[in-house]
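Checklist before submission:
- one chain only
- standard amino acids only
- sequence pasted in full

Submission:
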Amino acid sequence: MEFNCTPIGVIHTSYNTKESAPIQGAFHSDAIGTVEVAAEFAEGLLDIELFSHLILLYHFDRATDVELVRRPFLDDTPHGIFATRHPCRPSGIGLSIVKLVGREGNLLQVSGIDVLDGTPLLDIKPYVARFDCFPEASEGWFAGKKQREKPSGRE
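Returned file contents:
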């Protein structure tokens, strides 16, 4: 099965290299970026500023080889790719939850962003705590893992 997706915009950040991008935006709530929605989709932003947070879906356009089992950034033990948030995925789809700081036309200012500059934006969804937050959820192997620098040599 094949799936084609046309980007609806582009994400702009100060992160020009994989090494400079944070492991997770939640670790860097002060990281600012701009989500530029293509003009033909700008009308779809009506009422977006009523939400404090957004879910961004994007394409990991600079990820390299897919490895189904690999050592993720926050652990030195190998895990299955679907049990991680690693960018080298079969689908190439990434997800980040960001805080909406402001809107000016088709430009959304966001904080807590963790993606590379120029990343193709696939979709935006409003974050709705009633639907998207499950405090009782298990964190699996992520439980107890603290923020750390990206290990050298790992994409």
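Reviewer check: The two ends are 27 Å apart (CA to CA).
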